[in-house]
Amino acid sequence: MLTVETRPAISPREARAMDTAALRANFLAEGLFADDEIRLVYTHYDRMIVGGAVPAGGALTLDHVRECGTASILDRREMGVVNVGATGAVRASGEVWTLEKGDVLYLPMGAGPVVFSGDGRFYIASCPAHAPLPPRLVRLGEAKKLTLGAPETANHRTINQFIHPEVMPSCQLVLGYTQFHGGSVWNTMPAHLHDRRMEAYLYFDLPEGQRVVHLMGEPDETRHLIVANEQAALSPPWSIHCGAGTASYAFIWAMAGDNVDYRDVEPVAMDALR
User: Fold this and answer.
1) What whole-number distance in Å separates Cα of residue 231 and Cα of residue 251?
2) What CA–CA distance (Å, rounded) separates 111 from 91?
3) Are 208 and 229 in contact (CB under 8 A)?
4) pLDDT digits (tens, 9 = 90+) for 181-239
5) Can you give the pLDDT at residue 259?
6) From residue 32, how far is each of 3, 114, 265 by CA, in Å?
7) Where do the DSSP E strands lie in 228-270?
8) What is the CATH number of the domain that holds 121?
9) How far, in Å, CA of 76 to CA of 67, rounded?
């Protein structure tokens, strides 16, 4: 079963006037993972698609998505797949890859229908592409690692870069995930903006009953979302994106837009936040 929800782009002027329900309806993707289903959110921010596929021991095929306007979803798109569950498999482009938890698979434009199987919980991020590139399975040991922050500021973390110019080529998708060191809970702080691309965060490995307070909005007009496990926050180019959890967690970041320069950011000073 496939379901697709479309999210239109929202300006900062509109976001300033939104209450909690409106913020969640526009910027939070809930219920992405359901047994025997593929659930997608199609955003108008750089035409990014995020979603989940849970074959629950069977098989699910992702092929035609009406919102993409093509016969098959990857006819003019590329895709990153992250397994956040048990062992599973993905078949596309005439190949089959086995994904353990934490593995990331890149599928290029033209890879054809995508079949998810096994016991995995597959997070999907897809954006438009302009050229076919080689598919690649990247395991955690092959990712480029960047350690930032400090225990004293509760943001000591390792950023694992998978679909990234320093690891492998892509058209415009950049994807990885961040893991925290003992006692640290703040992600992406100090905050930043990147006007040339949007970003989506999927929070995962968050214990039951715990939450992440995800900060968004303009630096001088911040808003927040209370986020549970396996929910995704959609971040427009004009918005900051950072947060803190009530327990340990990890999050997948996926970006699409004008360029793939990970360092193309505008830092926001702590004293500029309101």
Assistant:
1) 10
2) 10
3) yes
4) 989 999 999 999 998 999 999 999 999 999 999 999 999 999 999 999 999 999 999 99
5) 78
6) 10, 17, 29
7) 231-235, 242-245, 250-257, 266-267
8) 2.60.120.10
9) 12
Length of the chain: 274
Contact 50, 43 (CB under 8 A): yes
**By residue range, what is the domain housing residue 12?**
2-272
First to last CA, the chain: 43
32 and 52 Cβ atoms separated by less than 8 Å: yes
The pair of structure tokens assigned to 8 is 């239109």
**Burial annotation 119-153 (CB, 10 A radius, 16+ → b, else e):** ebbbbbbbbbbeeebebbbbeeeebbeeeebeeee
pLDDT at residue number 261: 77
Query: Whole-angstrom Cα distance, residue 104 to residue 78?
Result: 13
Residue 97: CB atoms within 10 A of its CB come to 17
- 154's CB contacts (< 8 A; 6+ apart) are 183, 184, 185, 186, 244
